Amino acid sequence: VVSTQSTGSVVSTQSTGDIYINLDSEAFLDAVAGDERSYKPELLDLAVTRLTNANIKHHYQIQVFQGFAEKVKKKFEEKQQMDLEFDDAPDEFRDPLMSTIMRDPVRLPSGVIMDKPIIDRHLLNSNTDPFNRQVLTSDMLIP
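RE: above sequence
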C-alpha cells in the first residue's frame, strides 16, 4: 500500500490512495481486510500521514481515505475476533492453504475444498490447482 523507498513514495501513496477511495465498497473492504498477506492497519495509517504531510490530496479526499482505512480496520478486527472464536474449529472448516475459517467454501476438481477468496487470489498468479498443478480456472470451482 505504501512505498518505503525514498524516491517515488509520495507518488505511490497518492496513486494508491486514489484507487482505495474510488473502490470503497463492501466487497472491496472485505477483500482488503481479508488479505492476510498484505493488509496491516498501520500501513493505511502511514498512508494517511504521508498524504497529509505531503499535502498532495485535498483535505476532503484524505478524510475519505481515512474513513476507508477505519472501515477496513473494523472489518479486520471483526475477522480476527471471529477467528479467535472459532480457534478450535475442526480442520475441515479451515482452508487448507491459509488455515483460516472458510466463509465461502468451494470444491476444486481435485476434490479439495478451499475458501473461494483464497483460491481466487491464487488464480491471479497461477492458473493451476495448488495441490496437483493441473490447469484450474475460476469457472471450474464448484460452490
